[in-house]
Structure formats: structure tokens, C-alpha cells
């Protein structure tokens, strides 16, 4: 699912926080996660266990992957529980 949009609308941090997403900040990209939407399918942890590791705190560390790699994994989330906002102006 497209990780920078909800219902085809480009997301903002305000919208994500209102919708119940929690923010995991990175240098050039912030990752947002909504546990109520997560379907526990595991594409994230299989996609990049350095960035997404269940049981670690925080379980998401955006800077453990490159921006492009984080986006690739986030877009593989089928439920929409993972979203991102780029901060590098690209
Ligand atoms: S890929 Fe998405 S739905 Fe699957 S476990 Fe990760 S966050 Fe949850």
C-alpha cells in the first residue's frame, strides 16, 4: 500500500497523529505506525529486520535503513499500518 498517502491524499503528520499513528523519527524520513490497523503479516520485519524488529524498543528505527529502502518496505505493508513522511525534500 502506498505509504505516503491515505485514500489517495498526501498525508500530513497532523492527519496521521489524529488517526492514531505513532511516530518513529529518523534523520531524513519519519515512519508512522498504527497498531490498530496492523494485520501482523510481517512484511516489515521480513523486509528489513534492522529497521523493524518486534520486541526491540523502539521496534522501528528508521535510520537503520536508507530512505529508499525504508520506503520500499513501508510500501510492502498490505494493511496501511505503516506510513512515512520524507524530510529530505525529495
Ligand atoms: S507489514 Fe504492515 S501489517 Fe504487516 S506486520 Fe508490518 S506493519 Fe503490520
Automatic annotation (TrEMBL):
Superkingdom in the source lineage: Bacteria
Classification via Pfam families: Fer4_19 (PF06902)
Record InterPro entries: Divergent_4Fe-4S_mono-cluster
Domain Divergent 4Fe-4S mono-cluster residues, every copy: 24-87
Record-given protein name: Divergent 4Fe-4S mono-cluster domain-containing protein
Lineage, opening ranks: Bacteria, Bacillati, Bacillota, Bacilli, Lactobacillales
